[in-house]
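I had to read the description of the data format several times before I understood it. Each protein is reduced to its one-letter sequence and a matching series of backbone shape codes. The format is easy to grasp once an entry is in front of the reader. For illustration, here is how one protein appears when written out as sequence plus structure tokens:
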Amino acid sequence: MNAPQVSFAGLAWRDYHGVLLPYAADDGPRQTGDDLALGFARTPRGALLAAIHIAVRANIQWGSKVFGPTIDEQVIGPDAEALRHSMDEAYGRQRGDRPEGAELGRGYVVLEGFRWLGYSPDAASLDLVSAGPGDSDVTARAVTRIEVRWQDGDWRVIAPPGGTWAGAASPIDSPDGYVLFQDGSG
């Protein structure tokens, strides 16, 4: 697998519940109904966009109406069921009096950049850098490893090891050494 260049030309950054996500007419997502994101091109940029959109949506913040179908339809691998179970449990603990399926609130994260670990037309792996509010007005940054595989005509995210995003994320001090997003989120 190699690490191809990805053009940011033509990317549009749109608000998704407080998080700016990248969209490209030619690389996807082509469908965004019901808060889901489907239809990514079998290109490096399509793989990157799929990794971002699917990983962001497979999170309890947006409610079970989003993370449930996202995980069920777009996350594969031996830990996909464990991811669904861990998200259901975490959502149940944090939902409080909200109706089932309701989002927990807006997101307060910025996608700053990424680094390829490898890409082929069948599989890709990357580290995604995000930043958000930390303690004492300090910006907290994390890098999350995301793997995707081309399956059934679209990119699918491979569930993180152990079925939790925490197991795929590590804190970092700076986005130095990563490809920074331009004209949008980061």
Notes: The radius of gyration is 16 Å. The first helix runs from residue 44 to 57. Residues 125 and 147 are 4 Å apart (CA to CA). The chain has one domain: 17-180.
